[in-house]
Amino acid sequence: MIQSINPSTEQLIKEYKPYSDKQVLSILEEVANEYALWRFTSFQERSKILHDIANALNSNIEEHARMISLEIGKPIVESRMEVEKCVWVLQYFADNAEDFLKSKTIKTGYKESYVQYDSLGVILGVMPWNFPYWQVIRFIAPVLMAGNTCVVKHASNVSGCSLLIEELIIDHTPFKNMYRTVLIGSNHVEMMIQHDAVKGVSLTGSDTAGSAVGMQAGKEIKRSVLELGGSDPFIVLDDADVDKASKTAITARFFNTGQSCIAAKRFLVHEGVYDRFVDNVYRGIKSLIVGDALNESTQIGPLAKQEFVKDIDSLVQSSIKDGAQCLVGGIGKGCYYMPTLLVDVNEYMSVFKQETFGPVLCVTKIKDAEDGVRLANQSKYGLGGSLWTSNMEFAKKLTKKIDTGTIFINEMTKSDPRLPFGGINKSGYGIELSAYGILEFVNTKTIVVG
């Protein structure tokens, strides 16, 4: 049985029976059959359906937010924000997809030549638990508006969220199989990728999972988008607004209890402002409220699973052994890991080299901007990054030297439906969101009239 457990209380919420191979194959066939109809609907019809789904979600934020908080321990205020962001991305693609996918003329010597964007078929989404609504909705909004249909294999510990999303969509479209979810283990993903109806796969998860899915998709010669881990640098130079940077650092690191691929994880701070930055974040961390995810005042909830406590603490303890200083934090009760501040961190420590998926803020002293860039690139990942300085021209030049998919200057890294989102290196490949993201799962077809 698949279990959904409340990490705040460690109590069982519900058990779900995994779908059989026969059920999964049946769902794939149904979604493939629906594609034959959905692909020829107009943009206006698709837009109306997505707006209907967005309106229904917006009218019932509390039910969906509560399920998020129950299943993964996300503070309820943040869960509401996640659902609200899902409403935004649905509306954004409903309003803009037609323009993004307009045919584009190419000047040649022919009478006429242009590119048109056709749908592909069934697209499989393999989704993570940490943003159980946002990851799914940001995947399906452009994919559906492009005329594809979707099947999602969600993380097992958020099966309640997965079924609620399916119910939401089915209840607000006449196309009952344009989107379906399957409750299965990761060992069944290869079977789904191999299915003839599946034309592409998008995975958000670890680089280990991405490697497996990427190989499977490559073997079947099917498109894939991989949004994987990150160890984002947060570079603070000596001319930065240190008070603003340190205040933002708290949110950038501890949102979703630090369980985010684009959370700032390595804080690279100029030696001239290092002590001030550390003092500010220390006081900020001490003021964070830890508690049950459903409490309105809670800012830090539990980690999503009990085993994650041991995982994050092993990185912390290893780094302390190698010379890092822990100013505050450590293991709490049950699934809780207290907000932690490590200073004197260097590039050889575990918390620097590996992704710290939890509420641990690590500060490293840098000599200058070039030292910061060097350390920022000292990672197998390359998802996002944040750069703090008052010199905008200098900052823009530095962005060319930092190996990430995104750089935010004087702001924390975040995803936005209007902006392309993706990484390099072990953070994956392909683009999500924006006009660029919708092109990942379409056939860019050349039409020539001689």
Which band does the percent of strand residues land in?
Answer: 15-25%
How far from one another are the termini?
A: 61 Å
Shape: globular
Instruction: Supply the CATH class of the largest domain.
Output: Alpha Beta
Tell me about the biggest sheet?
7 strands, mixed
How would you name the CATH homologous superfamily of the largest domain?
A: Aldehyde Dehydrogenase, Chain A, domain 1
> In which range does the helix fraction lie?
40-55%
Strand order of the largest sheet: 12-13-14-11-10-15-16
Q: Based on the structure given, which CATH architecture of the largest domain is correct?
A: 3-Layer(aba) Sandwich
Poorly predicted tracts of residues? none
Tally of individual helices: 15
Can you describe this structure?
- With 450 residues, the chain is of the alpha/beta class.
- It folds into two domains: 2-227 and 425-449, Aldehyde Dehydrogenase, Chain A, domain 1 (3-Layer(aba) Sandwich), CATH 3.40.605; 232-409, Aldehyde Dehydrogenase, Chain A, domain 2 (3-Layer(aba) Sandwich).
- It is 40% helix and 21% strand.
- It contains 15 helices and 18 strands.
- The protein has a seven-stranded mixed beta sheet, sandwiched between helices.
- The longest helix is centred in the first third of the chain and has 25 residues, at 76-100.
